[in-house]
Predict the structure.
Amino acid sequence: MADDFELDTDDLTRRMDGAIANLRTEFASLRTGRASASMLEPVMVDAYGAMTPINQVGTVNVPEPRMVTVNVWDKGLVGKVEKAIRESGLGINPQLNGTIIMLPIPELNEERRRELTKVAGHYAENARVSIRNLRRDGMDQIKKAKADGLSEDDQKFWENEVQELTNTYIAKVDQALETKQEEIMQV
């Protein structure tokens, strides 16, 4: 019988934490007018026949507030790294200096800031969808247990637990989005 049913809330929590961590990674890739090594994390380079993260083909540094440098280890990959940065959609124009690629970070204008807040909103919505999908998975487990004889009181208890967990994580997404939008709009 399902009287001994216990939903694995730790698993749901872990998976929702993963959605929040993914959101933070996506937010880190958004430029806010300040140089950050994490802004290059999503850039993949076609190196040695495979798509490789940029930090595995060179050293990413931030020598000054408006400059990111990539010191490419293999001279033969400099062109490919430069091309990957150009095509990444970051809006940065790389400058070559031997095996070092310099990325001057321009000031963000008002229009670009608004675009970035929309992108941040899109990332947040994707995180909310992920969390809601995890909620649905939890509710499906409860429904399955109900079919196996879980009492209605227990069903309500577990549904409330899952909903509270979902609400908590949706609030975390909303808070992260608000913080990121403030950071982007800050002049």
Summary: The chain has four helices and six strands. The radius of gyration is 22 Å. The longest helix spans residues 110-147.
